[in-house]
Design brief:
This protein is α/β, with parallel strands linked by helices and 288 residues long. 22% of the residues lie in helices and 24% in strands. It has a seven-stranded mixed beta sheet with strand order 6-5-4-3-2-1-14. Strands 7-8-9-10-11-12-13 form a seven-stranded mixed beta sheet. Helix 1 (49-58) links the parallel strand 3 (40-43) and strand 4. Helix 6 runs parallel beside helix 7. The chain is globular, with a radius of gyration of 18 Å. The structure holds zinc ion (ZN) (2 copies). The site of one zinc ion has 4 residues, from loops.
Length: 288
């Protein structure tokens, strides 16, 4: 049974549409994962989720759409597309949104604010679909399609990385916002790197933050993001089979991202390294 991963939004921080980002895409974080039977997991709800929602709505599923939307955290670039997710507005669809509680603030309260009448015309309670909002705790999320475990990562607010164990055994690890560099003060507990490397294991696909070049990081240390070189090093250390560089810096043009991808591939191949490396692009589909 094969797993399909489709990128609908690859950009970090803020949408950056235009001719200069046409190939890698300007929409913010959203990744569709499907198992061989078509069960649907959506990782993050940046502006990329709008396109996915349109595609789903057009498919006209007779029994309604069943989807799990799994949020890494509640920064704008990971939730801002949610109010524009077309399946919310059709009776018969059932959608579960999962995400970490932010201190004392629950995820449902955050989504209510996102769709408050002063900023959005349709409140959360008026959605036609059946919606449930659940917190991610220490226990795995078990969905129709897969089992998902989580680990807190090095980023402001409570931010989770996810490991999806798919039917048939394939594994996808999604870590969108994470600072691998030494700066920043994050409540991730002792021996984090060791635990993180084990968490990734020999994933079939690691999707990881690669916001900066090493030069850019020197002026962005402590901002909660990684360089592509650090992502490559992590992939090699953990034995991930493929690495998708993700959460592209909004100022990076397609040409700049081409250079980053080539440099990352060269780094990955050093010493006979075998990790396959791509820069995630809107529309890119990877089959595992
Ligand atoms: Zn982000
Ligand atoms: Zn963030």
């Amino acid at each position: 049974m094969s797993t399909t991963v489709t990128f609908w939004g690859t950009r970090g921080t803020i949408p950056s549409p235009g001719a200069h980002t046409a190939r890698y895409g300007g929409n913010t974080a959203c990744v569709e994962v499907r198992d061989g039977e078509g069960h649907l997991i959506i990782l993050d709800a940046g502006t990329g989720i709008r396109g996915l929602g349109k595609r789903l709505a057009a498919q006209n599923a007779p029994d309604g759409i069943r989807a799990h939307i799994v949020l890494s955290h509640a920064h704008w670039d990971h939730i801002q597309g949610l109010p524009y997710f077309a399946p919310f507005f059709k009776r018969g669809n059932t959608i579960t949104v999962w995400g970490p509680k932010q201190g004392e603030v629950g995820m449902e309260a955050i989504l209510r604010q996102l769709m408050q009448p002063v900023v959005f015309p349709v409140p959360l309670d008026a959605l036609a679909a059946t919606l449930e909002v659940k917190h991610v705790n220490a226990e795995p999320i078990v969905t129709e399609g897969c089992t998902i475990t989580s680990l807190r990562v090095r980023h402001p607010a409570v931010t989770l990385g996810y490991r999806l164990r798919m039917p048939g055994g394939a594994s996808v690890v999604y870590v969108t916002d994470d600072e691998l560099g030494p700066a920043g003060d994050y409540a991730v507990g002792p021996k984090w790197r060791e635990r993180f490397v084990r968490f990734i294991g020999d994933a079939d696909l690691l999707i990881h933050d690669a916001t900066y070049t090493p030069e850019e990081y020197t002026t962005h240390a402590g901002w909660g993001h990684s360089t592509f070189a650090e992502a490559v090093e992590l992939a090699r250390e953990s034995g991930a089979k493929r690495l998708a560089l993700f959460h592209h810096e909004p100022e990076h043009t397609d040409e700049a991202t081409d250079v980053i991808a080539a440099q990352a591939q060269a780094l990955g191949a050093k010493g006979g390294g075998r990790t396959e490396i791509v820069a995630a692009a809107e529309g890119l589909q990877i089959t595992l």
